[in-house]
Write a structure and sequence with these properties.
single chain; mainly beta; Jelly Rolls; 2 domains; 6-stranded antiparallel sheet; 3 helices; binds calcium ion
């Protein structure tokens, strides 16, 4: 029984194809499935108190008011270009001018030459003492796009992993993020949230395939890239790089947990009710 569609399936079409609450994998959602569901009602495999506290990766509050601290302590610029003298930039951490949080942030002024092909890039890099990312769900940071920025300057973030005594390598990269602001409000702070789970935009770098494998996060790299054919100039402000955990650890997932939150409750029953007496 093979079906071929000549259009993109709607959500309703897909629901018809797949019955999530057909637990016994027969032809329909009926009393057998309800019995299994009822038997697991309010079952939970959540490990108590397993949501970890947020980790501040950098909020810039510890830097002196002006200037760039030593590489071992703070951010530095890392540049790869055949014609280095055409890149100009200023990086200031510990900036007191309009931070997002606290009294300090980071400001980066740049003038990037037209892209002429080749492997040319600029990253802002920050060394961290190793942090275990297991269980964490998001990286968040704040960025303010100065009104002089243009659409052609991309913003990437890479996350380094360098366990002690192992060659330095990247764990994943993600981006670009747009750096053009709403023209009606050109100086607002934005929160960029990077979902570390089920995120198709993350490019995992071998051998990493999941955030839970990153046990020694020791650096953040922020790429600022000009992919246009003209020189681009702008200013970016950063603040409040954080690791956030909002999902608990679980001991397996109950069969009847359809939402994946490790608890069988009304949120799961909604699926079963919607599929009630449906067949495939
Ligand atoms: Ca069934
Ligand atoms: Ca701050
Ligand atoms: Ca989690
Ligand atoms: Ca659930």
């Amino acid at each position: 029984d093979i079906t071929i569609w000549d259009y993109a399936l709607t959500a309703e079409d897909i629901r018809q194809l797949m019955l999530f609450s057909n637990f016994d994998r027969d032809n329909d959602v009926d009393s057998d499935d309800l019995r299994l569901f009822a038997g697991q009602w309010l079952d939970s495999t959540v490990i108590p108190n397993s949501i970890k506290s947020p980790i501040v990766l950098d909020n810039f509050e510890s830097y002196s008011a002006t200037g760039v601290p030593p590489i071992t302590m703070g951010w530095f610029v890392y540049l790869n270009d055949n014609n280095l003298n055409t890149w100009t930039y200023t990086l200031v951490t510990g900036l007191t001018e309009t931070p997002y949080g606290g009294t300090k942030g980071m400001r980066f002024d740049f003038s990037l030459p037209a892209w002429t092909g080749g492997d040319n890039w600029l990253v802002l890099a920050h060394r961290l003492s190793p942090r275990d990312m297991k269980g964490y769900d998001q990286i968040r940071f704040r960025v303010k796009y100065h009104s002089r920025n243009t659409e052609d300057v991309g913003l990437f973030i890479h996350v380094g992993d360098d366990p002690p005594d192992v060659t330095e390598r990247e764990a994943f990269r993600i981006g670009p993020f747009s750096i053009v602001d709403n023209v009606n409000d050109p100086n607002q702070w934005h929160e960029i949230t990077i979902d570390l789970r089920n995120n198709p935009n993350i490019q995992w770098q071998s051998p990493y395939t999941s955030v839970d494998e990153i046990r020694n996060l020791n650096g953040i790299l922020v790429s600022v890239v000009n992919s246009s054919k003209v020189n681009q100039t702008g200013t970016l402000y950063f603040d409040d790089f954080r690791l956030v955990d909002h999902t608990p650890e679980c001991n397996g997932i109950p069969t009847a947990d359809l939402t994946g939150d490790c608890v069988v409750d009304l949120r799961d029953f909604v699926f079963l009710a919607e599929e009630w007496l449906r067949g495939v």
